[in-house]
Amino acid sequence: MDWTSNPASFMIGYQGGADKEALRVVADAFAERWPGLVADKVDMAAVCHRAGKIRVAFVSAFFYSHSVGRLMAQTIADLDENLFHVSIYSTGRYRLSHDDPISSIILTRADAYRPLPKSRTAAAHAIAGGAPHIVVYPELGMDHDTYVRAAHMCEQMGRRCEQRAALL
Which of 3.40.605.10, 3.10.180.10, 3.40.50.1820, 3.40.50.11380 would CATH assign to domain 43-167? Predict the structure, then answer.
């Protein structure tokens, strides 16, 4: 695997076999190391019946002319502006720009855009500050840092929810 920067788990799907069990083992290993990755199911009926827009945060290192950006751009652009507030967070070295055609599609639809700091705690706080109902990490399993950031975000959000519950 010297020729790729992707974690070995990303390559499992390219082996041509039944990969579900192998990926389950990898996911279980990550969940054991970072329990915050295992989230409860979201009650979308409750989210959809509340006042205001549904706040969706998209977090990626690849929101430019990359396969992830190409796959996500139209999905993000097609989200109904009357129903969804879209926040875009970039985790990588690349900062979105209207000079890149894929980034431009994403930025045009975004209600908010923020490059995230390198500190995982600061990044988690930045995302949590937007109070998202849904956080989408399109390349989980492809980018190790994004996987770890997702785990850290779950831990931070869990603490925040516990603190709010203690106040009630």
Answer: 3.40.50.11380
